[in-house]
Amino acid sequence: MTVFAGQGDARRSLSLLWRAEESDAADRPRATRGPKPALSVEAIVAAGIAVADAEGMAALSMRTVGERLGRTAMALYTYVPGKTELVDLMYDQALAELPTDYDLSAGWQSAVTSWATDTWEFSLRHPWVLQVSQARPVLGPHEYTAMETLLRVLYTTGLDSAALRRIVGVLFHFVRGAARTVAESREAATATGVTDEDWWHSRAGTLTEVVPDFAERFPLLVRLETEGASPPPEEGAQGSYLEREARATFDAGLTVILDGIEAAVARQAARPPR
Amino acid sequence: MTVFAGQGDARRSLSLLWRAEESDAADRPRATRGPKPALSVEAIVAAGIAVADAEGMAALSMRTVGERLGRTAMALYTYVPGKTELVDLMYDQALAELPTDYDLSAGWQSAVTSWATDTWEFSLRHPWVLQVSQARPVLGPHEYTAMETLLRVLYTTGLDSAALRRIVGVLFHFVRGAARTVAESREAATATGVTDEDWWHSRAGTLTEVVPDFAERFPLLVRLETEGASPPPEEGAQGSYLEREARATFDAGLTVILDGIEAAVARQAARPPR
DNA sequence: CTGATATCCTTACGCCATAAAGTGTTCGAT
DNA sequence: ATCGAACACTTTATGGCGTAAGGATATCAG
Fold it and tell me: Which of A175, A187, B32, B102 could be a cystine partner for B111, CB 3.0 to 4.6 Å?
């Protein structure tokens, strides 16, 4: 399920996202009538994150979040306009755990590498964030903070804003795409109860039965598989074969992108400054 | 909704995917009892693609596909094991419209560019393909053909198989990620009835109200927005502002990646061949 | 103490995938 | 020519989903 941000009332959503800020303790009409709230937006968001972390986005429902808090699904609607807004709040809250500063003393290259690695690890700690659509940004404080953090690094390259826009896009697409592969692999494994290895073995056997002339029809694919296979897992290696491949793709891809940024920097420096 | 491939019986799924091949007209027990089938796997897959193209993956249900064929949802289960397998079949069928050969006479760079552009356009013609998980490949004939086609281009770089594996990953992540932004933007627009421009204007106004000190807190973001904005749409320009930005990111990112591949080629050539 | 208000629950609606069982058609075998 | 097996397809039912509507109850302002 891809989730779109901000469909409801803009003011209501944005107030919730930035709620820490605007309540200067002044405009709080505290001491109202009615029973004391047993829940809070914070508690609901935390419960939502807990559910999504543990069971995945597919298992996130108003019912499951309510249950975790000992309430029914409908109880949540007092605090949150709907599921869409809850996911927005969860997303921005999760982003709060990203670092907000990177050491630039070793050059922007290593800072970008750290940023990419942190974002990759973050995405795998909360894989459901990869299912929040980027087309309609959530516009929460931590999303903006994360962006500002990356820009503090990238502006030290000396590139102009137009070039940086594209580079930000490339970096995001790449990190999210690479992380998505691992996240989906894990989700598939827990959802179906079949590990990547088992799944592949079972399919590969059947495939050669159903398509006996596979090797003649797809020679380069076979070559890629046989020659290009990673070495067997070394001592400290973690995760499945597919996960290690994804990590290798991540590292190699990052190198490619850093090389490309460097080329752009050199190209701009060679141009007349005005 | 992210869809996982191949959860069901492997033989049944793979037989359906490769069904054109294995029916050598010999093992067909044609002329059975019972009423003649009014539907066919082909017709169901075509109807599914039509629904997904027109209404998006979210609107694809066994009911909607059945309705389009004048049947109930359950009628489809005679031909297809379930929705998952139907999506697999739709995916592989759609891939059939990708080119299977690229002209290499102008060098691998321009061939890769053509491939990326074709894949980008394909993904926007059938945006739902971006929601089919890549963690558990569908393993259909056209998926393999598409891969073999790309490999025919990439092996002419002279890179070894291990390096190519990573580069294939980078290319796929990038093209899919860039296309996803546009696809989600369009989906959000039709799903919510609000264009990107309208949405942004409405949000931006409210945001400055809710967060009056935005400019001081996120100076680089503001700088990126004000300096880095694309020029206004020229005569022949198509799509929304966000779409044109995404296309610019796509072009710029492709350049970055091509530069990176070139660097890898140079690096491998500099190494002792054995 | 009363009435307004806020929290929370129950019920209900219309979606979804699909399991199970029923209906009616069409053939092969007798 | 007829009967029963096989098959296509429908109906019904189960257990999920988000959330609208309305009811019950707790708490405070007056």
Answer: B102
